[in-house]
Structure formats: structure tokens, C-alpha cells
Amino acid sequence: MSSNSIRILAGNSHPALARLIAKRLGTDLANVTVTKYSNQETAVTIGESVRDEDVYIVQSGCGEINDHLMELLIMINACKTASARRITAVLPCFPYARQDKKDKSRAPISAKLVANMLSVAGADHVITMDLHASQIQGFFDCPVDNLYGEPSVLRYIRENVPDWKNAIIVSPDAGGAKRATSIADHLDLDFALIHKERKKANEVSRMVLVGDVKDKVAILVDDMADTCGTLGLAAKTLMDNGASAVYAIVIHGVLSGKALDVINNSMLTRVVVTNTIPHAEKKKKCPKLDTIDTHKVHAVV
Fold first, then answer.
1. Phi, psi of 182 (to 5 degrees)
2. Partner residues linked to 198 by β-bridges
3. In Å, how far are 129, 163, 205, 276 from 148, measured between CA atoms?
4. What region does 139 belong to: left with phi over 0, alpha with psi -120 to 50, or beta?
5. CA-CA distance, 230 to 220, in Å (whole number)?
6. pTM > 0.90: yes or no
7. CB within 8 A of 54, min separation 6: which ones?
8. Which sign does the torsion angle of CA 170, 171, 173, 178 carry?
9. How far is CA 254 from CA 37, 133, 248, in A?
10. DSSP string of 255-293, one letter each residue
11. CA-wise closest residue to 226 among 247, 257, 196
12. How many whole angstroms separate alpha carbon 61 and alpha carbon 250?
């Protein structure tokens, strides 16, 4: 007879976070084996019964994103066909979140496609953190919990940024202004904005600062850092305008390509990311990296 308890399954994208969530909830990860055939097909084996159980599958959109997304879809479908009562996909970093609108002719809205695939696979509920655009929640017909890293960011600033009361919160682009102003209001600090012009995706050509950062600690806040070109140029712009130090706090630290070299060679004092994406190995190569732990936020939902 089923105990109607929960089962937490982990894919290969971020097992460390899944273990922390399971430990917080006082349970163990369910026995799941995810392998690949020689032709690179993904094979999933659920090693214990999930019949009439609440199943939570933790899989972040990072690393080999396409493989990890396919893993998640197969795991959801495997649990559905094994008669799980309710299946929740926990995606700390939502894959393809930046492709959330048709910004040019014939461009796909890939975030909507991912939402459709999760629903068709059998997901009854989705939990994610700091979506690149909140309207992605509307792509789903099932409930979506969009968790916020802001409380953890506020705590980090108060506890780890020296002289934070003499700081100014800076958004590296107009799109992040709402996020930055919210943090500035909570800390009773001033706010500044950087306007950036791009030649092409992932490449910023020019930056213009709007606001006064002279003799202040500048704290850049953003939802995602990929190649870190924006952060590197933003730090230089802020220092050129008289900032005493520059911190960057980002929810999703993708840190792809030459990101670590950019950070190491930049004027950034510290780059702080959450553990929605694993970066333990990257911290060994980049002493400026620091981590905000978010497993408690995911565990309480």
C-alpha cells in the first residue's frame, strides 16, 4: 500500500543540489539510473516504486543542456507511466529562458516549446527560480512556482559586502532595472543604470552609465551571467566613473566560454552566483567567485 510520500529524483545536471534538497527534507534520493546507449540515446531506469507518490525531479538547465532536457522529459514520462500521483519538474535554471519572445522575423519562441514538451511528457507542476522573463509562467497550462533569489541576495549583501551602506545598486541593462530597484529599495540605497549597445548576441559594443557612483561600492545585480562580457565592461565603466569597488551578484552563473578569464582579468572585486548551476570546478580556476546557497528555498515550496 502506498504511503503517499514524496520521492525526489535527480538527473545528471546538478545531483549535488538535489542531495542538499533531499537532506533538508529528511529523505534520500530515489534510485534512478540514467545512461546512454552507444548511439547516444538516453536510457532511464527508475529503481523503486513511485506508484501513487508525489515525485519531484531535480534537473537544472545547464551544462549539456539538450541532453539534460531530454533526460528530464524521459524521467517525467517514466514516472507518469509508472503511475506516479503527481510529478513536479524542479528546474532551478529554466532552459532556453532567454528565447522567450519573437524579437525578429522567423525567430522561434523556444521557451514556449520547452513548456509544451514538459506538459506533454507529463509534468503536473513546475518549480523554477528567477525566470529570465516572468511571462514564461504563462506558457504553461499547469501551475508554475517562480521562486525568487532576492531574499538570499539581500542577506548576502548585508553580511558579506564591506561598507554596504555606502553602496549603490546598479543594473547592467534596462531589462534588469525592476530587479535592481527592488533590491535598492529594500536596502534603502541609491540606484544606477547602465545602457548597453550590442553589435550581436553576447557581444557588447558600448556602455553609458546613468547615475552617480563616485566613491561608492557598486553592486551589479542581474539574473544571468553567461560569457560575462557585460559584467567585465560594466565593472570598467563603473571604475572609470569613480566607484571604489565593484561587486556582481547574479542568480544563474552560466559562466560559459571565456567567462572565467574575463572575470579574473576584470576590475570586479567579487562575482557572486547561486548554486542553481554547479560551479565547484570553476571556483578552483577563479578565486573571485563566491556562492549563495539556495537549496533551502527550493526545499520549502
1. -65, -45
2. 204
3. 6, 25, 31, 12
4. alpha
5. 10
6. yes
7. 4, 5, 6, 7, 84, 85, 86, 88
8. negative
9. 28, 17, 14
10. --TTHHHHHHTSS-SEEEEETTS--HHHHHH-TTEEEE-
11. 257
12. 16
Q: Are 96 and 108 in contact (CB under 8 A)?
A: no
pLDDT band at residue 1, thresholds of 50, 70 and 90? Answer: very low
Contact 213, 243 (CB under 8 A): yes
Record the cell numbers describing residue 291, joined without a space.
556562492
pLDDT of 202 above 70: no
Query: Model confidence over 240-251: pLDDT tens digits?
Result: 999 999 999 999
What residue type is assigned to position 141 of the chain? D
**pLDDT, tens digit, 9 for 90 and up, residues 125-173:** 999 999 998 899 999 999 999 999 999 999 999 999 999 999 999 999 8
Give the per-residue pLDDT at 173: 86
The label of the residue with cell 501551475 reads 143
Cell output for 237: 565603466
